[in-house]
From TrEMBL:
Portion held of the full protein: 57 to 359 of 359
Protein name from the UniProt record: Geranylgeranyl diphosphate synthase
Domain of life from the UniProt record: Eukaryota
Source species taxonomy: Eukaryota, Viridiplantae, Streptophyta, Embryophyta, Tracheophyta
Species this protein is from: Adonis palaestina
Molecular function (Gene Ontology), one example: geranylgeranyl diphosphate synthase activity
GO cellular component: cytoplasm
Pathway assignment: Isoprenoid biosynthesis
Keywords: Isoprene biosynthesis, Magnesium, Metal-binding, Transferase
């Protein structure tokens, strides 16, 4: 089959991810120098540099390169995306939201710095994201920068992350329909992945058809991420319970396996990888290799 050949290219996904993450980490480190008032900058750096996979920045840079842009042009936006992602995690972990004590193997921001500081660190990172894009994007037209800022603003707000979070909160403990579960995942997860590839493509000078293809690609991998998460929850918990047949985790959270059954959920995941790949078929296999492998990485991960 045609989509087999991206696997035959010499592209090394793991090395690519490691090298790109290293680059992103350096840029993030530089983006928040430690200064007065120390406490807020320490709290911002604590979560920003806590060692996430840097999926969103890497997607952004890969997408910029795919449409023929200079990857360096996407660096400020790549940092902004990670700032937004990080602030959403800080706020999501707060006692008034998910009330989590650990994140990425470390105490959550409010556990380490206190609730007041965690709220402010999130706010400051969100603000810095936009400032960073506006002031650091050199060598590209102001028109592209404004389009990127509009895309980012929309993806954070009430039609984006905030919208997904509020629907998620409202649905806790209730029976929800598949369409509502999909709304939550499209807004809490897929939308920032979507903004990542779209902003990368805008900075790289991509045309409207490129942007639409990449937007669809990101939507598929965003849903895929959550479907796979849900499937892993089931398979992990049944292993832990000594394979008690088909038992879900004992939470009130709606999941794909609960709403459609494990077999259908697996079929859905396979269909999503195939759809994501299909959006890339327009491009050279070699050029699109990072994005093909990204989809596989999300689909076939073990945790
Ligand atoms: C954005 C103003 C504003 C408020 C936040 C709290 C909230 C509104 C939204 C919640 C968003 C949320 C926590 C979504 C889950 C996202 C997700 C899939 C996280 C896991 O991402 P990975 O695997 O994590 O990329 P790492 O740690 O590798 O970065």
């Amino acid at each position: 089959a045609e989509t087999q050949s991206y696997k035959e290219s010499a592209f090394q996904f793991e090395e690519y991810m490691a090298e790109m993450a290293e680059r992103v980490n350096q840029a993030l480190d530089d983006s928040v120098p430690l200064r007065h008032p120390l406490k807020i900058h320490e709290a911002m750096r604590y979560s920003l540099l806590a060692g996430g996979k840097r999926v969103r920045p890497i997607l952004c840079i890969a997408s910029c390169e795919l449409v023929g842009g200079d990857p360096v042009a996407a660096h400020p936006i790549a940092c902004a995306l990670e700032m937004i992602h990080t602030m959403s995690l800080i706020h999501d972990d707060l006692p008034c939201m998910d009330n989590d004590d650990f994140r990425r193997g470390m105490p959550t921001n409010h556990k380490a710095f206190g609730e007041e500081t965690a709220v402010l660190a999130g706010d400051a990172l969100l603000s810095l994201a936009f400032e960073h894009v506006a002031t650091r994007s050199t060598g590209v037209s102001a028109d592209r920068v404004v389009r990127v800022i509009a895309e980012l603003g929309k993806c954070v707000g009430s039609d984006g992350l905030v919208g997904g979070q509020i629907v998620d909160i409202a649905s806790a403990g209730k029976q929800i329909e598949l369409s509502e579960l999909e709304y939550i995942h499209l807004h809490k997860t897929a939308i920032l992945l979507e903004a990542s590839v779209v902003c990368g493509a805008i900075m790289g000078g991509g045309m409207a058809p490129d942007i639409e293809r990449l937007r669809k690609y990101a939507r598929y991998i965003g849903l895929l991420f959550q479907v796979v998460d849900d499937i892993l929850d089931v398979t992990k918990s049944s292993e832990e319970l000594g394979k008690t047949a088909g038992k879900d985790l004992a939470t009130d959270k709606a999941t794909y396996p609960k709403l459609m059954g494990i077999d259908k959920a697996k079929e859905f995941a396979d269909a999503l990888v195939a759809q994501a790949h299909k959006e890339l078929d327009y491009y050279d296999f070699a050029k699109a290799a990072p994005l093909y492998h990204f989809a596989d990485y999300i689909a076939y991960r073990q945790n």
